[in-house]
Amino acid sequence: MKVLFISDIHGSFYYLRKVMDEYEKQEMDKIVILGDVLYHGPRNQLPKGYDCQAVLKLLNGYKEDIIAVRGNCDAEVDQMVLEFDVMADYKKVNLNGIDFFLTHGHLYEGIPDMAKDCVFAYGHIHKAIACKQDGQYVINPSSISLSKEGVNSYGVLENDIFTIYDLDGTIVKTIQFL
């Protein structure tokens, strides 16, 4: 199974469309959204192509493929228009035989005990991460629209390899889960 990991869309239809084109082109199977779907937040500039209505319409078309968690910019009103569950603070899922703890990251300082023995996958900080930290795998695909590193990116899990790509398809980071 090939899984797309995205985070911090912040209402940018422009960047989401680019990533979803890649989802279709690569014939991926699932989409993991690590929070901050529609709203850009009070600290952020409006991202390029800010259009919440277009974002929700596009994502609702993939509702059967989506596993999502709530970000700090997601609100109950968002759940009223999104046709997939976006209100859980975290989810534990198994993808390709690998256990993942999915969260946005704003509720935890460090890796919580309940995430031990899982790949810790989060967003929130808008920085690409794929590493092993104190014996635990940690991944963050960064933001597709408002990167703090100047490179908007997304992640792809294929078999046991997680790769972060920029929006031009260049590999930013990669890690294999052993």
How many separate structural domains? 1
CATH architecture: 4-Layer Sandwich
Instruction: Tell me the CATH topology.
Output: Purple Acid Phosphatase, chain A, domain 2
> If you average the pLDDT, what whole number results?
96
Q: Which key features would you list for this structure?
A:
178 residues, 3 helices, alpha/beta, Purple Acid Phosphatase, chain A, domain 2
Summarize the structure.
The chain is of the alpha/beta class.
Question: Can you put this structure into words, describing what you see?
Answer:
The protein is α/β, with parallel strands linked by helices and 178 residues long. Helix content is 16%, strand content 32%. It has three helices and eleven strands; from the N terminus they run E-H-E-H-E-H-E-E-E-E-E-E-E-E. The strands form two sheets. Strands 3-2-1-9-10-11 form a six-stranded mixed beta sheet, with no helix packed on it. It has a five-stranded mixed beta sheet with strand order 4-5-6-8-7, with no helix packed on it. The longest helix has 13 residues, at 13-25. The mean pLDDT is 96.
